[in-house]
Amino acid sequence: MKNKNEHRFPYEWTLKDANFTKDKGKVFSCFACGGGSTMGYKLAGFDVLGCNEIDPKMMGAYITNHNPKYSYLEPIQTFKDREDLPSELYELDILDGSPPCSSFSMAGNREKDWGKDKVFREGQAMQVLDTLFFDFIDLAKKLQPKVVVAENVKGLLLGNAIEYVRRIYKAFDDAGYYCQHWLLDASKMGVPQRRERVFFICLRKDLAGPFLKQAGLFDLLPELKMEFNESKINYGEIKTELGRIASDLYYDRWTKREPTDANFGDITERLNGSGSCFSDVFAKDEFPLPTITSKGSIYDFENGYFISDDSFKKGGSYPLDYDFKGNKVSYLVGMSVPPVMTANIATEIYTQWLSKL
Asked: Which of 18, 111, 190, 242 is the most exposed place for a label (fewest CB within 10 A)?
């Protein structure tokens, strides 16, 4: 199934017309949000059994759109300790998760927030966000899926956060897995968005024998190639109607933009000598969308309006008929792994590993 640009998976699609074959293996998703990664696994042919999610609004959207066999609305800390999990969850091909990552984001407070209790936007229980990754690894150790896939922000690889990466590797090793990570860009996978994310992909040690290759001088690791170079899809190809108009203040600043400006911060810095509003970014016709965040503050460079909900859906490779259940489109898409990104990764995992086991 290819679109007009001959990509492996189409970014413009609908749930009602999708053909989910469910013949590649079984998946369970943690920190599932509205099901971005779930839809990716389904597009790749996997059977997603269900999810764990703490946010009732996100869970409501997930259930409406995916009708999961199993759904657990609770913190990962309690879910991982359950003694009543169905046997199917102990026979998974892939355990998937996107532990909340704001503590490591370059747009956040980073080190100032590490080790502190934080709460999500909807007001769930306080949690130390930077330990949730290790709760997820505890779950992997318990369920022992063949493969574990964990997604996180690029900032996890930068500066002092690299110590967390070492801890993640050690925890996966203790859980019985070979761990590797890749920094991947969704815009190279047929997603109309420049979105860089780090993916930890881990294979259970007792299955790794046929795939082990020399990695460096001393290490043996299961070989897995994650190389993507599909043609980029620019914003000009996906925009339809415009979104809502910006405020008078933003519109006035927009009129003073220059071609090299990437965001409103560039404008205020040029005009005032100091910048603000750097997270309010521009979508330009000749480039893929900038990273969609949960704030969703993306403005059409040509007219100063917010981009439309349809542009957010296409930019996040979300199905056009997805029922957002009252959640703001930009927020839910910004919180999600783009389905087409996950579909590409899952296809490589199946082709190179699972199909040969």
From this structure: 111
